[in-house]
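Example 4.3 (complexes with small molecules)
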Amino acid sequence: MRIIVLGGDGYLGWPTAMHLAARGHEVWAIDNYLRRQIALETCSEPLIPTPNLTDRAAIYQTLTDQRIHVTIGDCTDRTVMAQLFAEARPDAVVHYAEQPSAPFSMMGYDAARRTLRNNLEATFNTIWACLEHAPDCHIVKLGTMGEYGTPNIDIEEGWIEIEHKGRKEKFLFPRAAGSLYHTTKVLDTDLLWFYVRIHGLTVTDLMQGPVYGLATPETDLDERLLPNFHYDDIFGTVVNRFLVQAVAGVPLTVYGSGGQTRGYLNLNDTLQCVELAIARPPAAGELRILNQFTETFTVNDLAERVAGAGRAIGLDVPIKPIANPRKEREQHYYQPVHSGLIELGLEPHLMSEEVLVAMLERVRRYADRIDRARILPRVRWN
Ligand SMILES: NC(=O)c1ccc[n+]([C@@H]2O[C@H](COP(=O)([O-])OP(=O)(O)OC[C@H]3O[C@@H](n4cnc5c(N)ncnc54)[C@H](O)[C@@H]3O)[C@@H](O)[C@H]2O)c1
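Answer. The structure with nicotinamide-adenine-dinucleotide bound is encoded below.
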């Protein structure tokens, strides 16, 4: 297939581009380095230095003979998107190109507006690039489990049937996001649903949980092909952060009472899920929503697991709850359905001690690059 990866320089976008190329697809990757720019502005550079997208694609091509076409450009620019879609004539587009940091989106007016405009406009332009240049293209959009919030009922896969005064109708599952970033994802879903209803676009919206991991079969070819790996409070996701804290000898930063429960998945499973979504698309003109995670944990569970893996390799890993900078429920019901991707063929890589130990050992090689000043939260929700 001919596939465009939007946000191809990112933590998920770069491994996805390589993974799809390795499976024989023709891949185009576009990125405007927004994440690198915000990381510089907020002193949140990644643990492992990563060559830029053009250089990484060249390294990958030298090693494998597989070409990833690179565009350095902004998905909010209609001309850039029109040129890319007209050239690639994609069968599928994987849309990762958003500002994904919840803390950044809560830093103040400028950061919130930048997040809102970037994310909504990138999605809007993706929709219009498809309408104008590739109407049969399947849009695989990365949403987040955070769209649903933590309701006191089971979370369905995107849709819920409601009976009201004796009549029934299927609606999008109610959303209640906990940050401005997550709210942009809710708005993205509404935008996509509108264009599916009115223009018959074909869309898979993947409600993904926090991802952890570093290595994939393609990144294992060369250390320079590793994805961005952040451990700071702005871009770091919780498991990746805890692993770096464990190596640095900093107490694991559990926010509040640590009962916050979420669905997690390994980076390799993100690759599998996206590949499955592309290989087995929904019916034309359908909005399919799949909940993309493999296991649920509380923050306390995660801290215990990372501490246990640390002990297995001789690290002393204390855990120290700190005041929660976010506004969120710390103890709550959490029961999301996640059978759709398993039915499509997902074979989960679970969070075993072996997996955590391998990551700790990898992080240990970069221990001298850890900046402890980047660990404690700098952004409060109010
Ligand atoms: N990493 C996770 O745990 C996780 C969990 C749930 C959902 N997601 C979603 O998956 C997607 C990818 O996340 P990630 O962790 O790889 O983030 P990332 O920031 O590493 O990747 C996003 C990439 O998109 C690029 N980008 C942003 N706006 C752009 C624009 N206007 N034009 C071109 N490029 C642009 C950035 O420069 C970056 O390289 C995001 O949409 C995120 O919301 C991620």
